[in-house]
User: Fold these one by one.
Assistant:
Number 1:
Amino acid sequence: MIKSVDIEEFLELSRQNPVVDVRSPSEYAYGRIPGAVNLPLFEDDERAEIGTLYKQQGKDIAVKRGLEIVGPKMRPMVEFAEQLTFKDHILVHCWRGGMRSGSVAWLLQTYGLPVFTLKGGYKRFRNHVLDKFADKMELMVITGPTGSGKTDLIKALATTGQQVVDLEGLAHHKGSVFGELGQEAQPSSEHFQNELFWAIKDFDFSQAVWLEDESIGIGKVMIPEGFWRQMGKSPRVHFNMDRNIRIKRLVSEYASFPQTVLDEKITVLEKKLGGQHAKSALELLRSGDFAGVADVLLVYYDRAYKNALIRHKNDLLLEIEADHEDFAKWAELVIEKTKTQYV
């Protein structure tokens, strides 16, 4: 008999054993357990066909059609699984821990491979993920105006052994109108949340977890509500880099993109910038004055940041006025000045 394990044991086993997701390719692409490989029992069109048969002609007809589809796949599926490296078991799951995972697990076990399935399937994993975000965490939020290098500070904190989360890295987006430039395609909000869970699942929540301040939406993905609410109530470190350095950093980051792309992004900001500022930014862009463009855009971004700072003034733990880009030194200072926060 194939053993079905609960989510906690499944995740623990996944540290040294492969996770095989037997859902359809589109289900897998939309959201999956990080690190899982896809071995679909049915392709998307096959799954749709069987679902239609089930509704219109009943379970027996649908199952028989499923067997016709799966028959030729059985040997390739076994050969795929044979190539997986595992310590104890191959871990198999579908959406709810039902027929798909049970069928694949039976096939692999019949061949002689050790298999466990996930009780409740991917749906149970998702519930576990969302429950995790309700756990109390000692978040420390790095906040600061655009171009200050907050992500670089987060990375510098990570090199010292601090617990950090790079939300923008997980979201493949830097948060602003320009944030998608140079990034991979964004994941779904569901998979972003899965990746966020994976990043924090082994953290000690009694110790500081450092992350950058964000809106609830980073591009097209959404921070889970429970996690974002905790961010909103957490202590903040205000990191303000010298404005001239910020302009230089923004030029270095964005000036290499085609003018047509930057033009389009500035146009999107026209209402928020104001007509005159937008016109000025576009003229400077077309003349090749990227520093001038950044200077104009910071009028809007700095105003928006100041409003956010006012809203969170009671959460402000530390203010740093930075005049150089040695983020390792700034990380040391941040740790030194906040080390009594969690003792």
Number 2:
Amino acid sequence: MDMSASGYHPYADELPPRVTATVDWSAEGKQHGHLNVPYSSNESAWGAVRVPITLIQRFADNLGNAVMLTGGNHGDEFEGPIALSKLARELRPEDVNGRVIIIPALNPPAVRAATRVSPLDGVNMNRAFPGARTGTVTQMICHYVTSTLLPMVDGVLDLHAGGKTLSFEPLAAMHYLHDQRQFQRNLDTLKAINAPHSLIIDELDAEGEIDGVVEGAGKVFVFTELGGGGTATPNSIALAERCARNMLNHFEITQADGHGSPAAQPRTRMMDTPDANSYVIADDNGLLEPLVDLGEQVEAGQPVARIHNIEKTAAEPAVYHAGRSGMLIGRRWPGVANSGDCLGVIAIDTDR
């Protein structure tokens, strides 16, 4: 672990971030604090947006490894903020060898509003990386993560869910990478996290995601999609907690007890979305009729959804078909669909 935060540093020649932290990065023990993001508004001329952060570090025999756990990147995905808030309270310094940075709500304005994008600036945080020092609130948070936090850690777990517009079979995921050694490190971590489904994904749109800056720095990156529909369940929260603890165990920052070890958990199902045929995209506007439930197997060419014309009762619905055989691992949640919406995601089994 690079304690000096002098490794990958795309902003090394620039001024320091405008965001500041109330925690002491050199102190051992457990600290609860904030990132202070300048925000001058009509309500508060010299105000700031405060991002809660917990830093736990103890270096027993050596520097140990370092991991950052984040949730609330999108404000309508609640498993991460709940699970990481619990972990921030429960994890003790004496249980740690290394460094753990926990940010339950990376985008507090969005989490408070329960919206995907921030109500302060209309920015989707996970399309705003690497951020901007003099940008909006969201962009300044992204800049601080990229320039200051990322160099301090070896790996990042970003907890997501489907939010208000998608729902998923619970999964952890990673990307295809050209660097085979980095790909293998990510794959080993993905398997260790041991979500019910482990997905190697070719995303429709990855530009500006935190994923890219972490991977570009040569670090381990895994994210989750746990449930959806704009809510959280006891099961989805428990899965988020399990994924976070398995990440820490894998990096040997904590040690699993018998109940919490991967050997005591059901084995993950390795899956793949290798290309655009894995996605079902709407060309029409109207009422969405799902024809397949999440988790069901489909065959290539099988109808998986219909979109009904709201205005014309005589109009036949548009029928959407699976582009490949596999399992429906994700789908659109609202009952209304518009052209361009993702209606379904189909994953295939892989022996990786």
Number 3:
Amino acid sequence: MFSIFSKKEKSITLNSADSFIVTEKETILKSALKQGVNFPYSCKVGGCAACKCQLVSGKVKQLTDAGYILSAEDLQNNYILACQSIPKTDVILNVDLSAAVARQITGVVFGQKKLTHDITQLDIRLEEPIRFKAGQYARITLKNFSDVSRPYSFASEPQQDASLIRFFVREVPNGKISPLVNNENLIDEPVVVEAPMGDFYLQDPSSLSPLLFIAGGSGLAPVVALLQEALVYGGNRPVTLLFGARSQKDLYYLDEIGELSKQWKSMFVFSQVLSEEPENSEWAGSRGWVGDEIKRQPKAEWEVYLCGPPAMIDQSMEQLASIGIPKSRMFADRFISEHQPLSN
């Protein structure tokens, strides 16, 4: 991931995939957390073994004797404590990142942009970066309304320094947070973001299998993030994006998706499907349920990602099954009324 760094900096690679830099005299854990890596930890002082990881290659200086905490089997298998280890060389580690808990990070709202009559883009600047996967979500709390938090999917691309993050927030009638985001000026409003959460993400970003994205309403947010990540991997996978909305006034982010498609090296099909557009309007695109649009597309061995209202997802999955797409290739993020993402 990094091609140039000083001799005093060391590269840490996790699970032969993600990587970050450790500066001189910093422990692996301290640098990981500073750069938004959701590394498992608890005490930070070598007293609990929550941050234990397997040293696959490279050398470290251990600040304390890990033999008091780690088992004989752990030591034999080259386990170390990240909070007590300073790298002497570039290092490769195996670590169970699923053991890490979501982190709470404070920040402020620095941008609000109305996308439709009931969806607003919310931009947040965090006090420290956070690592997440495209497709995951966060729980957001407005500090002045601290008794309520709501989950929203990231609409921004995961980056090494992800301190600027974006969400699309649909106004829910009688909601606690979404009406504020859509109707009040929240610039400079303090927020708390708890993340990362969820298991909705590209299964293998380096795969060349064709991708089918089906989104409805604010379900476009994680799809935008997934597309941005796929582009980082070269934009070599054929993409079909079906976006379902009620009418033309509910369509948004079309120009931005158009710009993404121009950068794509493979086929990129983007279709909008309107379910309640007046019959006498000038709309020349598809009408009906977005799931019905599936059978109008050239059949392919798609890897399918669906995000939006449960009814839309269920109807789309039935259509997909009817043309032979197995459930093992369908990945869904269902948004219920308070925007609680649920994944299959």
